[in-house]
Amino acid sequence: MAFTYFFRDRATLDAIKDYAIPELKKNRHINVWDAGCAMGPEPYSLAIMFKENLGYYEFKRFKIYATDLDEESNQFGEIIAKGIYPEESLKRIPREIFKKYFEPNNKPGHFKIADEIMQSVSFQKHDLRSLQPIRDNFGLIVCKNVLLHLQESERIDVIKMFHKCLAEGGFLATEQTQKMPARTAYLFRQVNQKVQLFQKK
Q1: Theoretical Cys-Cys bridge with 110: which of 53, 72, 105, 200, CB 3.0 to 4.6 Å?
Q2: Closest among 88, 84, 92 to 118, alpha carbons compared
Q3: What is the value of pTM for the model shown?
Q4: Of 167, 161, 151, 156, nearest to 199 (Cα)?
């Protein structure tokens, strides 16, 4: 399981802010699935971005369901449940955001994420290859650094599963280097040619 950084891939985060959030604000509930969340920096970064771009009551209707297979580490639940991260993984966070949502922890060189952000994210183990979604009616699904590890046929099946459990007009964001397979391209439209952000047709 890779340990990634907060606010990695700012281009995709900005595209979600510009294209997805204005649409998702209209929904009664804003449900996001981060499939392949590693140790939590990605879903927590998403939660901070939504917090910054939603009103108070809109954020009350927001929830991220973060999943990972966790084949390599038993720290999966422990690290993300406590929300405590080393300073090294926080360096890409804009300074004003860092000061707003993180505070020093008792462990030297570590910081704890704000409770309001932690409470908007829930974590569970899940294998995408089961092709069983954790729920349906998602407004946004983010899946990075996962699809490239699958066989082509598995990748296609997983993307079709994502399409099925997205709400009407929902969005799918994938890794910048992971292009949409030709056999699933008809299911989505790419909303910005510079990033791998797609909207369900």
Answers
A1: 105
A2: 84
A3: 0.94
A4: 167
